[in-house]
Amino acid sequence: MAATTLEQREGIARSPVDVAGEAFEEWLTTEVEPVHLTVFLCGARITRDECAYEHPSAQLRYCVMDRLERSGHTVILGEDTVFYTAAQKALRTRISHADHEYFLAKGFADLTIVFPCSAGSFAELGMFAAIEDIAQRLLVIIDDRAEYREGYIARGPARMAQNNHAVVKFAAYGDVEGIWTLIEGMLYDARLRKLKKGNKR
Description:
The protein is an alpha/beta fold. It has a single domain (41-195), classed as Rossmann fold (3-Layer(aba) Sandwich). Helices cover 55% and strands 12% of the residues. It is built from 11 helices and 5 strands; from the N terminus they run ααβαβααβααβαααβα. Strands 2-1-3-4-5 form a 5-stranded parallel beta sheet, sandwiched between helices. Strand 1, helix 3 (56-70) and strand 2 form a beta-alpha-beta unit. Helix 4 (81-91) packs across helix 5 and helix 6 (119-129) packs parallel to helix 10. The N and C termini lie far apart (55 Å).
């Protein structure tokens, strides 16, 4: 058996490849972390001025919006009328709210998150699920209660979204920390996609 140095016996020797591997990890981390995302966040109605809500789905959406913005990302809400107005000006015609949300999710947002819990968010999910380009950048988090697990939303549009490569999860809407963990994984994937395109803005 070949002789070993003291450093090797103690397990502290590092080869040039080890050093290069650590440098690569450090470089890639510094590349990925600053990537800015635009997130389209759909669910129960909220406003940017009100931070406390009785309904868990509204409170969850507000908390997620707040965390995303504090993490340096831009959050778009369907309630932000500036985007609807901008779409009409850009297209020089009157369009439906569904049209402007289609353009937001398909071409402008890096990631779309839907908490299906209201008529509006059910409709959004149905539209997004059917469009593969949107579904590939879509996270759907469904209330873990039995009526949602076993109902049409889970068996219909949510399953269609999965078939089009969306990520669909069930979670208790009161578990903000657990849901944020799910979202963090999607944020990382979205940053990586954007980085591969050479765009950090």
